[in-house]
Design a protein that fits this description.
Largest sheet: 7 strands, antiparallel
CATH architecture of the largest domain: Orthogonal Bundle
Distance between the termini: 35 Å
Number of strands: 10
Shape: globular
Number of domains: 2
Helix content: 40-55%
CATH class of the largest domain: Mainly Alpha
Structural class: alpha+beta
Strand content: 15-25%
Radius of gyration: 21 Å
Number of helices: 11
Strand order of the largest sheet: 1-2-3-4-5-7-6
CATH topology of the largest domain: Phosphatidylinositol 3-kinase Catalytic Subunit, Chain A, Domain 5
Length: 342
Amino acid sequence: MALISRKKVPYKINEPLRQFLAKHDKEIAIPLQYSDLASYSGAITLYDHKGEDTLWLSVIYSQSDQEYIYNSLKKIYAILKVNGDLSIINHLYIDRIDVCTYGNTRPFRVRVVNQINDNFDYFYIKVADASRVYGLELEDNISPNRVSYLVYRETLIEEHILGIPADQFIKEYLLPKKEVNKRRLAKEFIKFNERCLVRLLGDMHSSNFVVDIMPDFDEIHYRLRAIDFDQQSYEKRRAVYCPQYFKQNNPILDLGFQILTPESVKQYQREERVLIANRAKAARHKLKDILETMCADNIAPPDHEYELKYELASFYKDNSFVKCVNMGDILKNSLNLLFRNL
C-alpha cells in the first residue's frame, strides 16, 4: 500500500517566515526569477553516460535572452557560494540548464564550469515553498550536514548536495553485490531513519536521498543525505517519516536484518538522538526562531496535524503530543521529547 496517497499542496512563504529569512540573511535580492527560466524556447532530452533517458530536458533560450540569463546565473552562483564576490564569475561559464520533467515543481538545474580547471558544480532554481524552506533550515541546523540556500520573492535557490542517488547506489553497488561495508551502511541507515523521524522529514524513498561515500584509512564510511525537503512536517502518518517503511529502500534495510542485533539497533538510535540534541543545543537561538515561525504558520491540512499528533502520542506513549495545535507545535514537541528522554 502506498505511504503517500496524494500530491502535496505547496505552501507560500508568509510574512513571519519572510522576517526569519531576512533576519538570518537568507532573503537576498537576485537578478533572475524562476519565471525567467521557464520562458525557454526549446528543449532536448538529456541522456546519461549509458545512453539512458534521465527524465531531464536541457533547455534552450533565444539569443536575445541567453546572455542576460547566463550572466545573471553566474551572479546568483557567486551570491550562493561566496557571499556575492563577483570577481569569481570572470572564469565561470554556464554549460547547461536542465529542467526536471518528473518533479512536482519542475525545478531547474544549472551546471556551472570553471574554465581554468574544468571543474563543475550545480545549483537549483525552484518555486519557493514554505515546507522546503523549513526542511532546509532544519537540515542545516540539526543534521550532520550543512546546506546553503537563499530565497527572493517566489524563487528558491539551492546548492547541489553531493552523493550518489540512493536508487542508483542500490542498483550499481548493492544488487550486483559489489564490495560494500555492510555494517557501516546499515548503521548509517538506522541513524538516517532516526533523524527523519525526530525532525519529521517525510518521503525519504531511495530517489530522495543520496549516499555519500567517504574513504578512511582502513575502511569505507557512508553518510545518507536528504535532497528533497518538500515533505517536511506535512504528512499525517508516522510511517511516512521513517525511510525504513519505503519498499524502495529494502535492499539497504535488509543489511540491518542480516548483520545487526536488536541491541545494536537501539544503541545506534540512541547515539543519533544524542547527536541531534547536541546539534540543537549548538544552534539553539536560530532553532528557536525557526520553530516559533513554524508554530505561527500553516504548512499542512488540519486532518494531517490531528492524525499525526495522536499517532505520535501512541508511538512514544506521551500524551504531550495531543496538546499540539499544528505541525510546528508537533515538531517542537518531538524535539523537546528528545531532551526529556536523554
